[in-house]
Amino acid sequence: MHSVNGLYAITPDTEDSERLIEQVSAALDGGARVLQYRNKGSDPVRRLWQASILASLARSRDALFIVNDDIALARAVQADGVHVGRDDAAIASARAALGPAAIVGASCYNSIELARAAVAAGASYVAFGAVFPSGTKPGAVAAPLQLFAQSADLGVPRVAIGGITAANAAQVVAAGADAIAVIGGLFDGDDVAERAATLAALFHN
Ligand SMILES: Cc1ncc(COP(=O)(O)OP(=O)(O)O)c(N)n1
Ligand SMILES: Cc1ncsc1CCOP(=O)(O)O
Ligand SMILES: [Mg+2]
């Protein structure tokens, strides 16, 4: 299993499963290496259905599959892991529920101290953001790109999230991020495969 790096696609919150599957397929075709299922609005049946399909899709393309927030759903679809933030389960609980091989990602917002604590608690990767203003999450904490240089010794991949697009992603990679997590900059258009290829290419060196 590869680690978290490169283009990290996060699903838009939608009820339209058919379009979601098409869009995610295109993102994987374009080179996304990690896929996170993030859906805050749908009922449990739709969430289970969408997550199951997307888990198989990711597996068939050798991409990692991570579920946002929901440890039980991650277990139900045999995801590679879960992503948790400050309002979610603790990192140690996620690790205990999913086992030593699971990927447990942790949101660290704009804080190196949170990142060090997350690694000590067993996180497999940390995420800093929002590195740019996010249309998807307008209230997100702003995180400076300097965090990536400051966290180079953490020993786990560092993911950047928030407002990342083809126009600004190169700056994020140059700052030292190991992966870029993208929702709007990838899925807010009809050219998802092309956008994914452009973003993924920033990691081919
Ligand atoms: C890769 C990645 N980074 C950060 C987040 C945000 O998690 P959280 O702070 O728990 O906010 P929600 O996504 O749950 O609204 C993420 N999901 N993925
Ligand atoms: C979940 C989350 N956490 C910080 S910003 C954000 C949303 C990222 O979406 P986008 O790539 O559309 O800004
Ligand atoms: Mg969360």
From TrEMBL:
Pathway where this protein functions: Cofactor biosynthesis; thiamine diphosphate biosynthesis; thiamine phosphate from 4-amino-2-methyl-5-diphosphomethylpyrimidine and 4-methyl-5-(2-phosphoethyl)-thiazole: step 1/1
Recorded superkingdom: Bacteria
Binding residue positions for Mg(2+): 69, 88
Positions with a binding annotation for 2-[(2R,5Z)-2-carboxy-4-methylthiazol-5(2H)-ylidene]ethyl phosphate: 134-136, 163
Residues in coiled coil: none
Catalytic activity: 4-methyl-5-(2-phosphooxyethyl)-thiazole + 4-amino-2-methyl-5-(diphosphooxymethyl)pyrimidine + H(+) = thiamine phosphate + diphosphate; 2-(2-carboxy-4-methylthiazol-5-yl)ethyl phosphate + 4-amino-2-methyl-5-(diphosphooxymethyl)pyrimidine + 2 H(+) = thiamine phosphate + CO2 + diphosphate; 2-[(2R,5Z)-2-carboxy-4-methylthiazol-5(2H)-ylidene]ethyl phosphate + 4-amino-2-methyl-5-(diphosphooxymethyl)pyrimidine + 2 H(+) = thiamine phosphate + CO2 + diphosphate
Cofactors, names only: Mg(2+)
Protein keywords: Magnesium, Metal-binding, Thiamine biosynthesis, Transferase
UniProt EC number: 2.5.1.3
Any one Gene Ontology molecular-function term assigned to this protein's record: thiamine-phosphate diphosphorylase activity
Similarity annotation: Belongs to the thiamine-phosphate synthase family.
PANTHER family for the chain: THIAMINE-PHOSPHATE PYROPHOSPHORYLASE, THIAMINE-PHOSPHATE SYNTHASE
Job of this protein: Condenses 4-methyl-5-(beta-hydroxyethyl)thiazole monophosphate (THZ-P) and 2-methyl-4-amino-5-hydroxymethyl pyrimidine pyrophosphate (HMP-PP) to form thiamine monophosphate (TMP).
NCBIfam families: thiE
Name recorded for this polypeptide: Thiamine-phosphate synthase
